[in-house]
Amino acid sequence: MFYTYILENQNDRSLYIGYTANLRRRLQEHLSGCGGKTTSKKQGWKLIYYEAYCIQKDALGREKFLKSGSGRKYIIKQLFHYLNNHT
Fold this sequence. Notes:
By secondary structure, the protein is of the alpha+beta class. The protein is built from five helices and three strands, in the order E-E-H-H-E-H-H-H. It has helices at residues 23-31, 37-40, 56-66, 69-78, 80-85; strands at residues 2-9, 15-20, 45-53. The mean pLDDT is 92.
């Protein structure tokens, strides 16, 4: 399986969108500060959304879409209640 996922920083509520073939391992990398440039600069990341795909190209295409302007609008609409009702 291949995964497209969204992390939220619990300190400043910023979002990180990524792709991986191993979601558990990748999440541990982010949480330990070894995830990459963006997530290693901050602590307090939480997995808030993911989608699973059988084909790698589908997951990569979804990641690219979610990082676009239309994709960001989709995220806000899809996670409206979560993003507006938690502290």
